[in-house]
Specification:
Blueprint (H helix, E strand, L loop, with lengths): L25 H11 L2 E2 L5 E3 L35 E9 L5 H19 L21 E7 H6 L30 E7 L2 H15 L3 E10 L32 H5 L14 E10 L1 H4 L4 H8 L36 H4 L11 E2 L2 E7 L5 E11 L6 H9 L8 E11 L11 H4 L2
Antiparallel strand pairs: 1-2, 3-5, 3-6, 4-5, 4-11, 7-10, 7-11, 8-10, 9-10
Helix pairs in contact: 2-4
Length: about 425
Amino acid sequence: MADPSLSQTRPEEETRAEPTASGMSRRRLLGTAGATGLVLGAAGGAVGYAAAPSGPTPLTSVGATKVPFHVKHQPGITEPLQSHGHLLAFDLAPGAGRKEAAALLRRWSDTARRLMAGEFASEGDSDVARDAGPSSLTLTFGFGHSFFARTGLEQQRPTALDPLPAFSSDRLDRARSDGDLWVQIGADDALVAFHALRAVQKDAGAAARVRWQMNGFNRSPGATARPMTTRNLMGQVDGTRNPKPQEPDFDERIFVPEQGEPAWMANGSYVVVRRIRMLLDDWEKLSLREQEGVIGRRKADGAPLSGGDEKTDMDLEKTDAQGNLVVPINAHARITRPDQNGGAAMLRRPFSYHDGIDADGTPDAGLLFVCWQADPLRGFVPVQRKLDRGDALTPFVRHETSGLFAVPGGAAEGEYVGQALLEG
């Protein structure tokens, strides 16, 4: 766990500490409380208590968790799902080009480094997250197809960034799709996430304007008695078949190799972002058995209908007493299996969303689908095409926005994200 005493230190406060009524500094008090308070184990449950010698004891140590900024792959890809997130795209302002984009990515990278370390933004901080630790904050940056023409870098645009094909389930709002630049923010505290959102927006200044922005959420850390795969707003366990970093071919499937093309994308990845509205009123009219048939898994625990537990391999050939396939031929879990799609795999890292209730009482809610892969033409596209041809889930979802972005590798010490592209 990271030390909460490092959180939220303004640049001008780094050499002085704020005294408390007892004379103990705020930084020392927070450090003492964080070190001796309730400690959470990997399962998210309390594993021990100790009394703090002075001052309040924090309820949890969730806020102290820190993710490093300077890493091989950008943060926000392989980290556990955070409970709060913001996705937003920017378009470069009229007249802004490569020079302005480079300065913006430098500002964003510096802000991300500071906030992820639990520090204040470099200047003009809003104090929104002053009392919190970094709370697993991550910021991730990417480039859209249109960015390269805007900056005169068409020769550096990857072929993997070619526009996605049209799909029959698409009902896309183009104003809330695509964009020159993409930012993903995730944190386990809503105020920490919002604080980062405001900092990113202010950093954009006159160089870029927000094209669209979406807000999402997941289950909070420690909300379950043991670590569990998350559930979506349909109540289904969602993400069972995700590739795991410990698998030998994980990097090959998810990240561009160090010697890959173009060179500036080394250790990077491609992200597909889709706002998928769930038609919950229609879904909730189905019986439990019908819902499970649509997905191909038990709702209670995510186990395949062919038997076992969540991690059991699905038996696609198993039949019931009448000779019918136990896992229906058009079940979502059957269609999306990598071994049914030529090995196509993607790392899904979504957020749920709820944007209110329409005038007719229909909830505007669903999934902010975010998936990562080394090449979307081998990852997302073949799976989505197959879903288009007969997924039992299709009548209950509607794809309303879409975006594809190239996300370069992590920034080294002293560098900013995308520097190899913008200064190469």
